[in-house]
Amino acid sequence: MIPTISDIQDLYNTTEFDRHPISVDFDIVTHQETYPSTKKMVPAHRRDFFSVIFLENQEEGEMLINQDKHAHLNDILFFQSPQHVFSFVRGDSMKGFLLFFKAEFLLPFINEVISEYSFFRNNENNLFHLNENEKREFINLFRAIQTDKQNPNVAKALVVALLEKVKVIQQKHQTKEKTISSETRLVNQFKRLVNNSFIEEKSVEFYAQQLNLTANYLNNRIKAHTGKTAKEHIAERILLEAKNMLMYTDLDVAEISFQLNFSENSYFGKFFKKHTGLTPKAFRQNH
């Protein structure tokens, strides 16, 4: 069962960030403000609110998005909704902004956030690289929101303006994506599905069903394009989460096994050793 973080204050408590949000349904902070207290790693979770993450630089750390590990990111915007599963390892010198809001914060301007802004959907592209002009425009918008964060009406209007600006960026990216092959689109869809379901669903059959394909056909197409079967991709995503939890949290192996939805600790141990050659305990000791 993937844990859900219910609100912004719950996120701060979970990450040990010593802060109270501006309101129950809105806050904006810089990455720099989160140091030094925030936890190094937060395991896979869902959030019952929306997140807009701007990374000006990411010298260290990583975000796990659409099954891929993203590190050394610069000038990116990332969008997360309650549909997403998200985990991260925090670097020591990240710069940028974190904007959090619940759907009701945008009322009465926006009634259905995901319907209005499709870049929050878990089956869409949620990460955009910005050019220099776009970067300056968004930094100015984030700074304006931060300046007027205590005025809810102004802050709300500025958040909507930011999201409307993202629509323009999204249209540019969608034009480029039309040139991507059908095989690449399938791989991207598959990875997004895995990232959002790998804890509850570990079988190729589940993902094939979601994509209206047979399990064998999905395995063959994924392997032809990536060199790895669908089953191997699912295992890699589980292992990536397990390794980060072993390296960056104090959770014992039994709790990690439980959070990753293995029915028995022994099954998790066998799975981990099969793919790494080490027991979870030995891996932790070596790292």
Q: What is the arithmetic mean of pLDDT?
A: 89
Query: DSSP strand (E) fraction?
Result: 15-25%
- The helix/strand series, from N terminus to C terminus, equals EHEEEEEEEEHEHHHHHHHHH
Q: How far apart lie the N and C ends?
A: 27 Å
Structural domain count: 2
| CATH fold annotation of the largest domain | Jelly Rolls
Total DSSP E strands: 10
Strand arrangement, major sheet: 1-3-8-5-6
Please give the CATH class of the largest domain. Answer: Mainly Beta
Q: Can you tell me the residue ranges where pLDDT is under 50 for at least 5 consecutive residues?
A: none
GO molecular function: DNA-binding transcription factor activity; sequence-specific DNA binding
Protein name: AraC family transcriptional regulator
Organism: Flammeovirga agarivorans
InterPro entries: Homeodomain-like_sf, HTH_AraC, Tscrpt_reg_AraC-type_HTH
